[in-house]
Design brief:
heterodimer, A: 178 residues, alpha+beta, Ubiquitin-like (UB roll), DNA polymerase, domain 1, 2 domains, five-stranded mixed sheet, 5 strands, 29% helix, 15% strand, disordered N terminus, B: 289 residues, Uridine Diphospho-n-acetylenolpyruvylglucosamine Reductase, domain 2, Uridine Diphospho-n-acetylenolpyruvylglucosamine Reductase, domain 3, Enolase-like, domain 1, five-stranded antiparallel sheet, 14 strands
């Protein structure tokens, strides 16, 4: 059998020297202003992890299926593997690290995940926690269908969904009253 | 799973965006929410030389009901925004319902209405909803601005009437008729998946005779474009949407739909599913009239 050889990239590859392939962008991450030189193709997930060292955002599937890389962009949960960092110029980002700094108590969502054992291996947890954070920050309590819809955007390979759901409901109870 | 290098630019006017798209030196691709494009970039299935981000063009971020009662959604309007808008929920509930079936909230927070339409995955919800709601598409390019009706917009899988140097700037949903009911039903293996098969139905009731005056029934996942079948609609129009008429419509769908086999389902399974969904959709739409 002949080993398969990757096809050459060919002339289509844009010149890296092209200045517009790099951009200086400013955004806010966990309340702090950040300015960085970034390449057009840099995914937000890689920017957070590799450039800012915020490795709490986990990268699972890299094509928008698993939800592990979810963070809040302008208070809305989004997939960072489906977002280029250049698209986020001027945006306010919140990652799992921004919820409860080392010297602060856990947020009600984090506490609920802890108390309800809403995790097993923990890989999917940061994504779930960020989506849950957006849910408790809504003006009105989301109904059961909305909660299920929001959580369906995340996969837990340990299949620990029952406790995750319990944790989210506990956090919602605390926020909106039972 | 990383994109190849490309340039990125975020123009502030439609004119600049069109000029970038018309530049023959470089292969440009429009990005708005990126929820279909970025996975393709990550997998290197898409290899554009420059991305034109249209979300910084203020006029494209507009969603409003115009003087003649039509709903106009600009190219940068996110799906979540449209689905939560009170005017949309009241006047175009089918649209809001169809958006609810797209992926997950995390996707809809980024993805745009026009982006999904211009991408045109034939299993996607919005092209089907747009055809059912008789939408019009406003397209701007170097040769000016033109409006295309839904019947002419969807050309083939991942292909629309929008040329490479043009931009879909707005989709217009006409004011629905007074006594109409709607339904959107789909069959998926998992919540949030693309439809294995789906159906959107809009029925109009003649209040004097209590019969169906007009019907628009559109299937997704049943061909390379959203599918409307005259035989299905003819079976419904003039009837009281009783058991017999709905069964005739379902039979027409069974015998005329030509979906394809793929890894998700056989053609036969899709046809059967479509016929069942059609019965459910007609009943629901009629109750809502």
């Amino acid at each position: 059998m002949t080993p398969s050889v990757p096809a050459p990239l060919g002339a289509r590859t844009p010149p890296l020297a092209e200045p517009s392939a790099w951009h200086e962008i400013s955004l806010t991450v966990n309340g702090r202003p950040v300015t960085a030189q970034v390449e057009s193709r840099l995914l937000l997930s890689d920017f957070l992890r590799d450039r800012l060292g915020l490795t709490g955002t986990h990268v699972g599937c890299e094509h928008g299926v698993c939800g592990a890389c979810t963070v809040l962009v302008d208070d809305k949960p989004v997939r960072t593997c489906l977002t280029l960092v250049v698209q986020c110029a001027g945006a306010e980002l919140r990652t799992v690290e921004g919820l409860a700094p080392a010297d602060a108590p856990l947020t009600p969502v984090q506490r609920a995940f802890h108390e309800c054992h809403g995790m097993q291996c923990g890989f999917c947890t940061p994504g779930f926690v960020m989506t849950a954070t957006a849910l408790v920050e809504q003006h009105e309590r989301p109904d059961e269908k909305q909660v299920a819809d929001a959580l369906s955007g995340h996969l837990c390979r340990c299949t620990g969904y029952r406790n995750i759901r319990r944790a989210v409901c506990q956090a919602l109870d605390e926020r909106f009253g039972e | 799973m990383k994109p190849i290098p490309f340039d990125y630019t975020a123009p502030s006017t439609v004119g600049e965006a069109v000029a970038l798209l018309a530049d023959e030196e470089r292969e440009a691709k429009v990005v708005a929410g990126g929820q279909s494009l970025i996975p393709m970039l990550n997998m290197r299935l898409a290899r554009p030389e420059v991305l034109v981000d249209i979300t910084r063009i203020p006029e494209l971020g507009r969603l409003h009901v115009d003087g003649s009662g039509d709903l106009r959604i600009g190219a940068a309007v996110r799906q979540a925004h449209a689905a939560a808008d009170n005017a949309v929920r009241d006047g175009w509930p089918l649209l809001a319902a169809a958006i609810g079936h797209i992926g997950h909230p995390q996707i809809r927070n980024r993805g745009t209405v026009c982006g999904s339409l211009a991408h045109h995955d034939p299993a996607a919800e919005l092209p089907t909803a747009a055809l059912a709601l008789d939408a019009r598409f406003v397209i701007t390019g170097p040769r000016g601005t033109r409006t295309v009706i839904a019947e002419d917009f969807f050309v083939a899988t991942f292909s629309t009437a929008v040329e490479a140097d043009e931009l879909l700037t707005e989709v217009v949903f006409p004011l629905p008729p007074a006594h109409h009911g709607w339904a959107f039903e789909e069959l998926t293996r998992r919540h949030g998946d693309f439809a294995t098969v789906g159906v959107a139905a809009v029925l109009e009731r003649d209040t004097a005779t209590n019969t169906c005056r007009a019907a628009r029934v559109v299937f997704c996942g049943a061909g390379p474009v959203p599918v409307r079948l005259p035989a299905v609609e003819d079976a419904l129009v003039g009837s009281d949407i009783g058991e017999q008429a709905v069964a005739a419509a379902a039979n027409a769908a069974l015998s005329r739909l030509t979906p394809s086999d793929d890894v998700h389902a056989t053609a036969e399974y899709r046809r059967e599913g479509a016929a069942h969904l059609l019965v459910r959709a007609c009943t629901t739409a009629w109750e809502r009239c």
